[in-house]
Protein: Nicotinamide/nicotinic acid mononucleotide adenylyltransferase 2
Amino acid sequence: MTETTKTHVILLACGSFNPITKGHIQMFERARDYLHKTGRFIVIGGIVSPVHDSYGKQGLVSSRHRLIMCQLAVQNSDWIRVDPWECYQDTWQTTCSVLEHHRDLMKRVTGCILSNVNTPSMTPVTGQPQNETTQPVYQNSNVPAKPTAAKILGKVGQSLSRICCVRPPVERFTFVDENANLGTVMRYEEIELRILLLCGSDLLESFCIPGLWNEADMEVIVGDFGIVVVPRDAADTDRIMNHSSILRKYKNNIMVVKDDINHPMSVVSSTKSRLALQHGDGHVVDYLSQPVIDYILKSQLYINASG
Structure:
């Protein structure tokens, strides 16, 4: 399978990140390594999306603090970014709406049609920023100017830091359907680009709790997008999936990360890291990166038992 025929993936993790742990970052790394080993995917980016303050979880500190901690946690990563969109909305957003936002934003900014699992795109779209001088989109003879997979993906990579840190001024972009009636058009290489929800097995198990998730949202999350699950504590993901009719229905859209060897994982639990902070436990360094610890101490977060 060539680079152009592999599915290009952006991993999106939604959560409170209260605070973000080393384990959360390792989930991204493990998921990327596993997807690459399958030979079917190329992971080109990761997005951390902290939940809105109105989520109402006890002990949830302000999104202002959580965004900064997340940014500190990924500051040395060349592919994971923090996105504030979810925090900046007027109220809490569903996981489904966050996925749809990033899909639509990527579609506008990159000029690619983002495929979902059930309806793969057949008509690629190309985009050109209006305020830049570029080659014409449609040409009759200048074949070398044809947008190749590498060029389009390069554009995605260049845009990712802007997309994930600041919502770009969308009005600067215009996109043209290659099948539009604009004279002789060229065929463009189709790039399949998907956003997959990255989660732990605890979130997968929550899908099985009656009434907790909106079933229509679950259909979209698992059926249209797909999820990548990093098991925790040797969780039996097959058993979990068999407890939900929707998970069984879309089992092929659920990718469970399986390592060749049992890699040691830092503690993912934010709750355990908060307890360590409150008790002055030196093992907090096993849970949190030093820049995050420094920020927590400077801002006096989680020190009181009340959170």
User: Anything to note?
Assistant: Confidence is low (pLDDT under 50) at residues 117-150, 161-189.
